Structure formats: C-alpha cells, structure tokens
Amino acid sequence: MNIEPTPPTTKNPPKQFIGDVWVDPIAGPHDADQRMTVALVRFAPGARTAWHSHARGQYLRVTQGVAWFGDREGNVIEVRPGQTLYTPPGQDHWHAAAPGCFMEHIAMLESADDPAATTTWKEHVSDEEFERSSPQPGA
C-alpha cells in the first residue's frame, strides 16, 4: 500500500470546456486490468463542458455549489452537494456550474477497452442553449 503522488491542478482545455474549469486527478489505473479514474473538477460560475459521452458511463458526486446536467432531450437537472448523478454509457450530456456560483464535483468513470475511446467529445453547448436551460431539482 502507498500514498499516491499529488499531481498538479490543471486547467481543462477550451476545446472541451467553456469558462474556467480545473481538474485535480485523485486516482487512476496502476495496472492494465484496472479501469477506474477519479478526479475532482471545479467549475467557475457558468462554466460548462462541451457535449460528450462516456463509453462505460460516469458518476458525478457534487461536493460544493450547484451543478446543472443536461441531455439531448432537453432535460436539465439541478444537483446539489451530497447528490450523485449517473450518466449511462453513450448518453450525450453536459455538466456546468449554475450561474452565479462555483461548483465542484468528483468525476468517476471506467476506461473503455481502448482508453482513447473512453470519452467522446462533441460540439460546445452554446450560450443560448445554456441560458435557456430550465433545471429541475435532482431527486
């Protein structure tokens, strides 16, 4: 057993995010048969991901602030600290900090058989799409 090294915080790329978003890796695979990746991700107010999907799905545990999660059907869910959102494999979605507050979540996902296919990034969520989002409270 060992204490993992602490990698530096990195800013996520504008190709995949709008606004300021930072990531702190928590855990990653040590061996070829391991798949789990965990990271702490922090969003500035109104910052958001581009549309994307995950080959094996994703869990997102909100730890601070208010998160919005949207899907292609126009559903937007508001998630608060202590709640966990699950997106199934292949589901296009985005995540964001609600306007006016920072948001932090822990992202947990498993790599695909081809690690390069774990996350499929798509187009940005436009300002217009984001501004007309009408979130429903998370269950």
TrEMBL record:
Name the UniProt record assigns to this protein: Cupin
Signal peptide: none
Disordered as annotated region, ranges: 114-139
Ranges of residues in domain Cupin type-2: 40-97
Pfam families, per the entry: Cupin_2 (PF07883)
SUPFAM superfamilies linked: RmlC-like cupins
InterPro entries, A to Z: Cupin_2, HNL-like_cupin, RmlC-like_jellyroll, RmlC_Cupin_sf
